[in-house]
Amino acid sequence: MPLGVRIFLAYFLFVGLAGWFVLGTVMDEIRPGVRQSTEETLVDTANLLAEILRDPVRDGTLADSRLPELLEAYGERQPGADIWGLRKMQVNHRIYVTDARGIVLLDSSGVALGQDYSRWNDVYLTLRGEYGARSTREDPEDPDSSVMYVAAPIRDGQRIIGVVSVAKPNASLQPYIERSQRRLAWLGAGLIGLGLLVGGLLSWWLSRSLLRLRDYAQAVSEGRRAELPAMSGGELRDLASALERMRTQLEGKAYVERYVHTLTHELKSPLAAIRGAAELLEGEMPVEQRRRFVANIGNEGARLQQLVERLLNLAQVEQRQGLEERVPVPLRALAETQLAAQAVRIEAAGLRVENRIAPELCALGERFLLSQALANLLDNALDFTPTGGRLRLEARHDGAWLELALFNQGEPIPAFALPRLTERFYSLPRPATGRKSTGLGLNFVQEVAALHGGELRVLNREDGVEACLRLPSVAD
C-alpha cells in the first residue's frame, strides 16, 4: 500500500473517530441544554407571577379578580412569531395557583380547579421553602409527552401563603432541538469533510515530496544526472540537503577512483611519448627533428618528475606527527623568494604584483614547509590569474596568529567547488588550457597548515579569489 494512502487512512480514522465522538457528545447535550435554558426562563416567569398574585391570594379575591379571564385570553393568543425559521402560532404555558395547603385556586387550563396538588413536587417542595420543580408525563407510555413544572412561593412577608406553578410541554421545544441537531449534523459533517480534504491534500503533498526524493536518490544511485528537488517543508528540506551531501560524498569517492585511473593514464602518456621518441632517435633523422624529439623527452620527463615529487611531498607531510623545527620565518622575505622564482612566468603574463607584507612580521614554524606551501599557493594563483591581472600578498597580525593572504584577480570559484578545493586529486580546469592539475597542491598546503596548528581558507573576494594561510606568530 502506498505511503500516502496509509497516511490518509490513519488520518481518516483519527479524524473520523474524533469527529464522531465530539459530534455525538454535542448532539446529546443539545436536548438537556435547551431544557435547562427553558427551565431558567420558567423560574423567572414563576417568580414574576408570584409577585403579581400576592395580593389577590392574601386577600382571598383571586377568584373574583380578572386573572381567570386574563389567563383564558392568554391561552387563546396566536403569537405568529418566526423563531429560527419555525412558526409559533400558540402559547404553551400552563399556569396554576394553589393556597398554603396545596389546593388549586386557579388553573389556566381549567382542569384542576379545587384539586389537591400538595403531593406534586413543585407544590410540595415550594411550600417547604425549597426549590420546587418536576417533570411529568401526560401519557405514561409516551416519553415525548413530558411537561416541565417550575413553582415559586407566594409570600406575605416571610409566610408562604400559596404557590404559583408555570408548566411548559417538552414537545413544544422539540422542533428547536431537532433543528439545532440538523444544523449541527450538517456543520459537523462539513467540518469532517473539510478535515478529510485537508488530510488528503497533506498526504498527497507528503507522498509526492517523498516520491520526488526517492526518485532523486534512485537516479543518483544509478549514476544518472538529476536535479535536487526543491522542498518547502523544514524537515523535508533538511532531508533533501542530507541527500545532496551524501551524493556529494559518494561522487567525491567515485571521483577519486576515476582520478586514479586518470592519473595512471597521465603516467602512461608521458612514458609512452618518451619511449616512442627514444625509439625514433635510434634511427637516422634530420638534426632539427632530432632536437624536437629530445625536447619532447625533456618536457615529458619534467611532467613526470613534478607529479612524482608532489605525491612524495604530500605523503611525507601526511606521515609527520609534528614539525622538525620551530623558528621565526620572515614572511616578506619568503614571499620575495617565491616571487623571484616565478619571475619569468609573471613577466610573460604581464601581471602586477603587490607585496604588502610588513618586513617585521614573522611566522613560527618550519621554513622549508612554509616555503613549499607558499610556492603551491603562488603556483595555483598564477594558473587562475588572467593576462595583465593582479596579485597581492598581505599578512595580518591577530594576537598569537598571523594570516598570510594571497589575492589573485580572476573568476570566482563556483560555490559547489569551494568546500572541495583541499581534497586530494580535486582540481578545477585552468582557464588558459582547460586542463586540470594533479589536485595535490592545496591539499599539501592544508596539511602544512595543520602541522603548524593553523588552517587554510580559500574565499571569493570582489574581483578575485583570496587564499588565507593562518600560522602561529612569533611572540613579541
Automatic annotation (TrEMBL):
<keyword id="KW-0808">Transferase</keyword>
<dbReference type="GO" id="GO:0000155">
    <property type="term" value="F:phosphorelay sensor kinase activity"/>
</dbReference>
<dbReference type="InterPro" id="IPR003660">
    <property type="entry name" value="HAMP_dom"/>
</dbReference>
<dbReference type="InterPro" id="IPR003594">
    <property type="entry name" value="HATPase_dom"/>
</dbReference>
<keyword id="KW-0812">Transmembrane</keyword>
<dbReference type="InterPro" id="IPR005467">
    <property type="entry name" value="His_kinase_dom"/>
</dbReference>
<keyword id="KW-0902">Two-component regulatory system</keyword>
<keyword id="KW-0472">Membrane</keyword>
<keyword id="KW-0418">Kinase</keyword>
<dbReference type="Pfam" id="PF00672">
    <property type="entry name" value="HAMP"/>
</dbReference>
<feature type="transmembrane region" description="Helical">
    <location>
        <begin position="184"/>
        <end position="206"/>
    </location>
</feature>
<feature type="domain" description="Histidine kinase">
    <location>
        <begin position="262"/>
        <end position="475"/>
    </location>
</feature>
<keyword id="KW-1133">Transmembrane helix</keyword>
<dbReference type="InterPro" id="IPR036097">
    <property type="entry name" value="HisK_dim/P_sf"/>
</dbReference>
<feature type="transmembrane region" description="Helical">
    <location>
        <begin position="6"/>
        <end position="27"/>
    </location>
</feature>
<dbReference type="Pfam" id="PF00512">
    <property type="entry name" value="HisKA"/>
</dbReference>
<dbReference type="GO" id="GO:0016020">
    <property type="term" value="C:membrane"/>
</dbReference>
<dbReference type="InterPro" id="IPR003661">
    <property type="entry name" value="HisK_dim/P_dom"/>
</dbReference>
<dbReference type="InterPro" id="IPR029151">
    <property type="entry name" value="Sensor-like_sf"/>
</dbReference>
<dbReference type="InterPro" id="IPR036890">
    <property type="entry name" value="HATPase_C_sf"/>
</dbReference>
<feature type="domain" description="HAMP">
    <location>
        <begin position="204"/>
        <end position="255"/>
    </location>
</feature>
<dbReference type="InterPro" id="IPR050428">
    <property type="entry name" value="TCS_sensor_his_kinase"/>
</dbReference>
<dbReference type="Pfam" id="PF02518">
    <property type="entry name" value="HATPase_c"/>
</dbReference>
<protein>
    <recommendedName>
        <fullName>histidine kinase</fullName>
        <ecNumber>2.7.13.3</ecNumber>
    </recommendedName>
</protein>
<keyword id="KW-0597">Phosphoprotein</keyword>
